[in-house]
Amino acid sequence: MYTCICNAIKECELRKAARQHRGGAESVYAKLGKRPNCGQCLEEANEVIEEERAALLPPMVAA
Prior knowledge:
Blueprint: E1 2-4, E2 9-10, H1 11-20, H2 25-31, H3 42-56
Antiparallel strand pairs: 1-2
Organism: Aurantiacibacter gangjinensis
Protein name: Ferredoxin
């Protein structure tokens, strides 16, 4: 599924880039060689990025 139609960025590409680069959507887009055009995707892109990075964190262990 496409997260950004203007730049043809697929969700799987965004998730992979989120694991490899810091920053929000605009920063990750730049690492992909893109930049936001209309901006309608930024909120969803940031949610995907946060979700992907949260999945990388080790689970919290209760004491």
